[in-house]
Specification:
Number of domains: 1
CATH class: Alpha Beta
Largest sheet: 9 strands, mixed
CATH superfamily: P-loop containing nucleotide triphosphate hydrolases
Radius of gyration: 16 Å
Helix content: 25-40%
Number of helices: 10
CATH topology: Rossmann fold
CATH architecture: 3-Layer(aba) Sandwich
Structural class: alpha/beta
Length: 241
């Protein structure tokens, strides 16, 4: 069955899929002086497409020959198990609590070099788990199993979860929905991440409406402190981003 959310996998020749591949390349350029292994994906607010972005960037990296693990660390409103149509009975929370190991939590995807770790059971204390030393250690342990670890976290402003994990990863990508996210909220999200010593690789602006049918996707890369930017775009007639 066609999964419209996984556009890079299901429709790899589409302009939107190409835009994700451009985003992948620009992310790599943004960290040219550092070995980029762990990437956190977040947004300023809910429903801005961060989970879909995390999934498609994971596919794009896998298509380039990298082994990838997508980790759903949104312990409040998990989505990756829905995106991939996977079971969510065992996942990140089980690993953090010591109930299972990484190998048993890894779930397969349609790509042999891409695996998913869902959230597992929703805990009563998400921030405490994500801000724990065990989570910090786990980010290192994940790298024994894949080249690239993509971490899907809750929106920055809503809760502290993303800000707690962000300083522990190699880079952060902020997803912003055009026409939905307020400029002030996006700026505040960026500042909160920078205040927490996060390395912002760039911002993905999606859901940009060109007209009633066409949607555009942009990736801006540069230093998180507001350095030089360069835009890339691709179009699609599906509002799937």
């Amino acid at each position: 069955m066609f999964n419209k959310r996984l556009v890079v996998l299901e429709n790899p020749k589409s302009p939107v899929a190409e835009a994700y591949r451009i985003a992948r390349t620009n992310i790599q350029f943004a960290a040219v002086d550092k070995d980029l292994r762990t990437i956190l994906i977040t947004s300023s607010g809910p429903a801005e497409g961060k989970s879909t972005t995390a999934a498609n960037l994971g596919i794009a990296f896998a298509q380039s020959g990298k082994s990838v693990i997508i980790v759903d660390a949104d312990l409040r409103k998990p989505t990756q198990h829905k995106v991939w149509e996977n079971d969510n009975s065992i996942g990140l929370t089980n690993i953090l609590l010591g109930d299972t190991g990484i190998p048993k939590a890894l779930q397969t995807s349609p790509m042999k070099n891409l695996h998913i770790i869902t959230t597992g059971p929703i805990p009563p204390n998400p921030a405490e788990l994500l801000g724990s030393q065990r989570m910090t250690n786990l980010l290192t342990s994940f790298q024994e199993y894949a080249d690239i670890i993509i971490i899907d976290t809750p929106p920055v402003i809503a809760v502290t979860d993303a800000a707690l994990v962000a300083p522990q990863v190699d880079g952060v990508v902020l997803v912003v929905a055009s026409g939905q996210a307020k400029i002030e909220a996006a700026q505040r999200s960026k500042q909160m991440l920078l205040n927490g010593k996060a390395k912002i690789l760039g911002t993905i602006l999606n859901m940009v409406e060109e007209d009633s049918q066409d949607y555009y996707y942009y990736y801006y890369y540069g230093e998180g402190s507001g350095g030089k930017k360069k835009g890339k775009k691709g179009s699609s007639k599906a509002a799937c981003l």
